[in-house]
Design a protein that fits this description.
The chain contains 23 helices and twelve strands. The protein has 551 residues and is of the alpha/beta class. The strands form three sheets. Strands 6-7-8-4-9-12 form a six-stranded mixed β-sheet, with helices on both faces. A four-stranded mixed β-sheet has the order 1-5-2-3, with helices on one face. A two-stranded antiparallel sheet has the order 10-11. Strand 6, helix 19 and strand 7 form a beta-alpha-beta unit. The radius of gyration is 31 Å and the shape is elongated. The termini are far apart.
């Protein structure tokens, strides 16, 4: 008797501890949801680690986006857009994360699309209680690595069909019939038959379950996604009109998936789970439900993907609202009426305490300036904000006017050791892609940093002049950074000239990182050698060489 009391106390204690720990975990989650809105995230390394998973949806979406309307891989890398994504990524679910990553690549959205996005962002910015409820549902989906293949699962759902499904239905019916016969007739032969069928089914289920476990869990997670969409549609019905029909057609699928969800929740190694497995396993219910769900989804892939993106769009909207609150500077851009753009107080989103600059494009631009003076950062800031304005309707400036345009860069060129391509070969290939994309009547923003610096001065100037002249006849907005003053002067009457400069005292070089009108004739390459501590004899020798007439 004492042993029974002791065991009972241990069981009760274990249950109480489990309940208390669960409540503490729930409390931590709710506190995080309440306190994290508008706070910069600190999980950049984790995001980079799972980028290969995050990009899954984008790799599927890009197949249906025009080359002119996508941020290609070269531009994405040039602008370090993974870092920008990490800044903007305040999402709570794997779906939101994937949709945001894809959204930042997609420049095809219309003014109407951006208006609808802005309505959602504004709603979640101002409705704290509703935002909290929505984020709680999204957080429930989480960011488990196994879920990032969901778009592939939906796209290739027919490959997950249960082979020989009728066999499992037959085993289930046979067991139910044998159980009924054993109960009604109550003869040893029928009881023995029932036990034999039960054992055979148990063995088959155990063997098949090991092979099917990952697929069943994938469908369970898909069902979890569907049920979350129903919850979100109830919370924000004003944003769910477009998928109401899709939700109706998938109601039965969602209900069936609830069974898998409940079974997955109890599919552990404890005694209760083991008992449920012994009772339900031989009836093949999980396989039958799995088969029914897959069969329905094969015919409803499009509806399922629209619901997936509905969840992602909600999460993205909350994320953008949170990012705006966390940003030092932001504005909602206006749509430019012509082939031009303008920014007031433009800063790079990833640089703290950045110096703001104003720019108004009315013709192609050449920027000159000293090393490390801010040319490249300014060009990147412009290109990034043209992307952000068209994708998340947000710019890191005081005000902005952004046209609908493609954004293409040639900046962070490197040798490719694996392919054997030199710096110059890579650079001219980058420029060639710009030329090819300029053939269509689609407004493009082109950013080139140090044009053709991979070759000698004489040929560089000649080829650069020819390329810039070519672009003057195309529908593009060109921004070029160069050290070649000859190039800037050659286009002085055709392009707008700006420059960045520095102030050098006896011990140091100070940059104001401010954009100025005109051409900068100064050079600081040798002065920088001295400023960072090169030996005097090297600096003096360099000065002697530069002073010679033939240099």
């Amino acid at each position: 008797m004492e042993y029974l009391i002791l065991i009972s106390l241990m069981i009760v204690t274990a249950i109480v501890i489990t309940i208390v720990q669960d409540k503490k975990r729930q409390k931590r989650i709710l506190y995080y949801i309440r306190s994290s809105f508008g706070v910069p995230r600190d999980d950049t390394e984790e995001q980079f680690y799972r980028l290969g998973n995050i990009e899954t949806l984008y790799l599927m979406d890009k197949k249906s986006i025009s080359e002119h309307e996508i941020v290609d891989d070269i531009t994405w890398e040039d602008l370090s857009m993974d870092n920008i994504f990490a800044l903007v990524n305040h999402t709570d679910s794997y779906i939101g994360e994937q949709c945001l990553y894809s959204k930042l690549h997609d420049l095809s959205k219309t003014e109407s699309d951006l208006k609808q996005l802005e309505e959602k962002i504004s709603f979640f910015d101002t409705n704290e209680d509703k935002r909290f409820e929505v984020r709680e549902k999204l957080y429930f989906l989480g960011k488990s690595y196994v879920n990032y293949d969901m778009p592939i699962l939906i796209e290739n759902i027919s490959k997950h069909k249960l082979k020989n499904s009728k066999f499992y239905y037959a085993l289930s019916y046979l067991l139910m019939i044998s159980i009924a016969a054993a109960i009604i007739i109550r003869k040893p032969v029928f009881i023995g038959m029932c036990i034999a069928v039960y054992l055979i089914n148990m063995i088959i289920h155990t063997i098949k379950k090991e092979k099917m476990d990952i697929k069943v869990k994938s469908v369970f997670n898909l069902g979890k996604m569907l049920n979350t969409s129903f919850s979100l549609a109830e919370l924000v019905p004003e944003f769910s009109n477009e998928i109401s029909e899709d939700l109706n057609t998938l109601k039965s699928t969602a209900k069936r998936s609830t069974f898998l969800e409940q079974k997955n929740a109890t599919d552990n190694k404890d005694d209760v789970s083991m008992m449920m497995s012994y009772l339900l396993g031989p009836l093949m219910i999980d396989f039958i439900m799995y088969d029914k769900i897959i069969s329905e989804l094969i015919e409803k892939k499009s509806e399922c993907m629209r619901i997936y993106k509905f969840i992602g769009e909600i999460d993205c909207s909350v994320s953008i609202a949170s990012y705006r609150k966390s940003a030092a500077t932001y504005c909602i851009p206006k749509t430019a009426d012509n082939d031009s753009f303008s920014f007031v107080g433009l800063v790079h989103p990833a640089i703290s305490n950045a110096i703001p600059n104003d720019i108004e494009y009315d013709r192609n631009i050449i920027i000159t300036g000293s090393n490390a003076s801010g040319k490249s950062t300014f060009i990147k800031s412009t290109a990034i904000n043209l992307i952000l304005g068209q994708t998340i309707h947000t710019c890191t400036s005081e005000s902005a006017s952004v046209p609908k345009c493609g954004v293409i860069t040639s900046m962070a060129v490197r040798d490719d050791i694996l392919s054997g391509e030199s710096y110059y070969i890579r650079e001219i290939k980058y420029l060639k892609r710009m030329i090819e994309l300029c053939q269509e009547d689609r407004l493009l923003f082109l950013a080139i940093d140090e044009i053709l610096k991979g070759t000698n001065t004489r040929e560089r100037i000649a080829a650069s002049k020819a390329i810039l002249n070519y672009f003057t006849d195309k529908r593009c907005m060109l921004l070029v950074a160069t050290h070649d003053l000859e190039l800037a002067k050659a286009f002085d009457k055709i392009f707008a000239n700006y420059y960045f400069s520095e102030v050098i005292d006896s011990d140091d070089i100070m940059f104001d990182y401010t954009l100025h009108n005109g051409i900068n004739d100064s050079s600081n390459a040798i002065k920088l050698l001295s400023a960072i501590g090169f030996p005097d004899d090297i600096v003096d020798k360099a000065k002697e060489e530069i002073a010679k007439p033939d240099i």
